[in-house]
Amino acid sequence: MHKALNSSAVKPISATELASAFSQETPQNICNRATLQLVPFARLQQLGVELYIKREDQLNPHWGGNKFYKLWGHITDYRKQYGTGQDGKRVPIASFGGAWSNHLYALAAVGRELGIPTIGIVRGEAPKQLSATLKDVREMGMRLHFISRANYQQRDTFTLRSQLQQQLDVSDSCGEVFWVPEGGSGIAGEAGCRVLGEVISSQINDSGLNIQCVAVAAGTATTFAGIVAGLDSNLSAVAIAVLKGIESELHQTVQTSLARAGLTDPKELPDWRVCGEFHCGGYARFPPELREFVAEFEAETGVPSDPVYTAKLLWGLVKLAERGYWPPGTGVLALHSGGLQGRRGYSLDVPSVG
Ligand SMILES: Cc1ncc(COP(=O)(O)O)c(C=O)c1O
Prior knowledge:
It is a single chain. The protein is an alpha/beta fold. The chain has 2 domains: 212 residues, Rossmann fold (3-Layer(aba) Sandwich); 117 residues, Rossmann fold, CATH 3.40.50. The chain has 13 helices and 10 strands. The chain has a 6-stranded mixed beta sheet with strand order 1-2-10-7-8-9. The chain has a 4-stranded parallel beta sheet with strand order 5-4-3-6. Strand 4, helix 6 and strand 5 form a beta-alpha-beta unit. Helix 4 packs across helix 9, helix 9 packs across helix 10 and helix 10 packs across helix 11. The N terminus is likely disordered. It binds pyridoxal-5'-phosphate (PLP).
């Protein structure tokens, strides 16, 4: 169905580089590796819009992307509290996700490389057959614990977390668990993603590329908030929400995050906006027109996207361009936020590393 997937222009991160990234003060070096690539796509070219993509997915097709930066923030906090993970009490990191969670996948991979035990609290009853994602995370050493959907709703509460701590055998760490919110959201996640915004700005400035707007897919908008905080004020930024009916909630999340980071002067910030019209029916929905779009985009550009995030981002960008959202001559940079391992849930292939 697809043309050969884009040959890698970005050098993938090795396990050693991944491990050493967490002992550095910033994940900037890794972020610099994912260059800004011009991706000619006829439907945008006809409208005079130039598309660039920052191929974070190519750093690792399974866990590369925004998850790495969010985890970088959380694991930096973990290490401040507990050391490297190989010494002392080996406090596990626990987090939440569904059967195809990119976040649990990335956490399991990073935990394995850093020697930190990980626990995945999974939404829903244990299935007879695990998804490919959950099989992988278990192979990487993550312990899985399934909870009902009703309990999952309580995932951010102290009560549920203390109950889980009782149920899980965490005697190795004297009962302690380091909790990371679902999807790696929160202050630490935003801080890690701010580096993405800073690096994108310097990549644009250093390269002199014709880019005026940075576009990002948004689930919790943690990534977008961090990017907006890090971008130069002469750029603009647009988030494409992948869930239905959460536009104003995401707007609020970004505002709160910027205020927390002390960024309240609009003159110091890029002009930013959350678009709520391109969720294609809701979270993880992949209607036929989106599937066709993904196939068309891949066949023409060689860039694979995941159905949940980057597909909707690219789809939204084309729709916005068709409405004349950008004047002809504008360059738009889309962040490829990874998540390609999740393609398996839609019977799509995952490109190999390198
Ligand atoms: C591949 C991918 N892209 C984008 C996002 C959205 O990130 P956020 O929840 O920070 O908006 C996620 C979720 O973490 C993701 O897995």
